[in-house]
Amino acid sequence: MPTSAPPKNRFERRRAETRQALVRAARQILAETGDTSASIQAIAERADVGFGSFYNHFESKTELFDAAVTDALEEFGQVIDERVEGIDDPAELVAVGFRLTARMADSHPELMRILRDRGLAHIHSDRGLAPRALRDLEIGIASGRFTCGNATTALSALGGTLLSLVALRLDRPDLDGDEAASDLAEMVLRMLGLAADDAHEVTRRPLPDLAR
C-alpha cells in the first residue's frame, strides 16, 4: 500500500501502523461488501486495534472510508506508474493503463472492486491515476499527438471508459480481458484523435509485465 515518509521514532511508527491498520480494515470492508455502516467497534476489531485508537486518527467513519478510497487510488496509480516507466508516447501510456487495469482484476481484485464501486466520484481526484492521466493528456495535446482541445473533458471520457472496463472485467470474468481492454483503449485513442491504424498498432504493442 502507499506509504508516506518513514516515521521518525517508535511512537510515530506505532501511530502510523495503527492508522494504516484502520485504513486497511476499511478497504477490506469496501471491497467485500461496500457497506459503510459497519460500527467503529467492528472496524477496530478487524484492524486489531483498541476502540479508542480510532479517534486518535479519524473524526468519523466517513473520514476513514474516504481515506481508504484515497489509499486504494494512490496504490493503483503507483502500480501503473511502476510499469510504464520509460514509455514516452502519451498514446501508449493511455493504452497500457487500460490494458494493465484489466489484468489487475485478477492480480489486485480488492483494489479493482473499490475502483468500480467508488471510482466515479474520483475521476478528477488529485490522487491515484487521475492526475497522472491528466498529465499525459496535456502532454499529448501540447505535442499534437492528441487533437482534442480540453484535457479535463478528455479525462472525464477516459475515466468513465476505464471504470466501465473494470466493471466488465469483474462482472464478466469469462470474457477475454486483454482483448476487451485493447479494444476499448483503441476506441479511446481514436476519440483523442489518432488514426485508426495508429490506434490499433499502439494498443497491440508488447505490454509491461504486471508481476515485476
UniProtKB/TrEMBL annotation:
Annotated HTH tetR-type domain residues: 16-76
Gene Ontology molecular-function annotations: DNA-binding transcription factor activity; transcription cis-regulatory region binding
UniProt entry keywords in alphabetical sequence: DNA-binding, Transcription, Transcription regulation
DNA-binding region(s), residue ranges: 39-58
Pfam family, one: TetR_C_40
Keyword Transcription regulation attached: yes
The keyword Chaperone is assigned to this record: no
PROSITE patterns registered for this protein in UniProt: HTH_TETR_2
InterPro entries: Homeodomain-like_sf, HTH-type_TetR-like_transc_reg, HTH_TetR, TetR_C_40
Protein name: TetR-family transcriptional regulator
Organism of derivation: Streptomyces spiralis
The organism's taxonomic lineage, starting at the top: Bacteria, Bacillati, Actinomycetota, Actinomycetes, Kitasatosporales
